[in-house]
Design goal:
The chain is globular and about 50 Å long. An 8-stranded parallel beta sheet has the order 2-1-8-7-6-5-4-3. The chain has helices spanning 23-35, 55-69, 84-96, 114-125, 146-152, 169-177, 190-196, 210-221, 225-239, 247-257, 274-286, and strands at 6-10, 40-42, 76-78, 101-104, 131-135, 158-163, 181-184, 200-203. The two termini are 34 Å apart. The protein is of the alpha/beta class.
Length: 287
């Protein structure tokens, strides 16, 4: 049985006007997502601007999410960091806070050898939490192919892969060559990914439209494919931003338009350009 089925939201980190962590808004946002029917919460990933958080802020976000979920839904911590030591540290923190798993990018700071990749995941595995490997060859120097995943699944806590290569054929191949659960990681390939065998979705744009995202997932899951395609096509202009560098600005702008402001993205990200704001606004108006 899949460990991570359903819609997990790669949650944003709300900021105050002076760009500090807005804890009350983070709690409110997580509560709203849960009340909207999402399956789980994934803090401190790319959508959560983890790379701009100092250690105290990152721990504050994780503790806040742990308190806000309160066992109502699982939370899976994003633990990406420049060193194995730091990734193991954040995995250990997540375990102490009751996380149900961690989402782990490969080494992010350079192009590692295969031996280094394996040793890295072996060190994280030793902490003892279920691991979702995050394959994102666009933003890292590593492509975790099905052959590499097959070798990594020998580690006892490797449970799933969030597939973000953009090649939906990978999902079929991963299912053929491994026993790993496959999680859709690209919002604008959700339907195709599920039809190919993905059983979960770690979603970015679900921050803005959680109820609609859950509905889309359930339509595909229940085999109502025509209805799913109709809804999916309405969402695609928004979902496509998930694979762009502007995803955080899009999410925060979209939430402001929904009457749920969460502040601006941290520098070096700048405000969302006008053309993109119009696109987001049109999709939301159409829903």
């Amino acid at each position: 049985m899949p460990q991570f089925p359903g819609v997990y939201v790669a949650v944003i980190t709300p900021m105050t006007e002076n760009s500090s962590i807005d804890v009350p808004r983070l709690k409110d946002h997580v509560n709203w997502l849960i009340e909207s029917g999402v399956t789980g919460i994934v803090p401190t990933g790319s959508c959560g601007e983890y790379a701009t958080l100092d250690d105290d802020e990152r721990e504050l976000v994780l503790r806040t999410v742990a308190e806000a979920t309160q066992g109502r839904v699982p939370f899976v911590a994003g633990v990406a960091a420049p060193s194995t030591r730091k990734v193991v540290h954040w995995t250990t923190v997540a375990k102490s806070l009751g996380a149900q798993g961690v989402m782990v990018l490969p080494p992010i700071s350079y192009r590692p050898t295969w031996e280094e990749i394996y040793a890295y995941y072996e060190a994280v595995d030793a902490v003892g939490l279920p691991i979702i490997i995050y394959n994102n060859p666009h933003d890292t120097a590593v492509d975790l192919t099905p052959e590499r995943l097959h070798r990594l699944e020998a580690l006892p806590h490797i449970a799933a892969v969030k597939e973000f290569s953009g090649d939906v054929r990978r999902i079929t191949e991963v299912k053929e060559k491994t026993h790993l659960e496959v999680i859709a990681g690209t919002d604008d390939l959700l339907v195709e990914s599920m039809l190919a065998g993905a059983t979960g979705w770690i979603a970015g744009m679900a921050n803005i439209v959680p109820e609609v995202s859950v509905r889309l997932y359930r339509l595909v899951e229940s085999g109502q494919v025509e209805e799913a395609w109709t809804l999916y096509r309405k969402l695609l202009p928004l979902l496509r931003y998930d694979s762009t560098p502007r995803l955080v600005q899009v999410i925060k702008h979209g939430l402001a338009q929904m009457g749920r402001p969460v502040g601006m993205a941290r520098a070096p990200r700048l405000a969302l350009p006008e053309d993109d704001r119009r696109t987001v606004d049109q999709v939301l108006a159409g829903l």
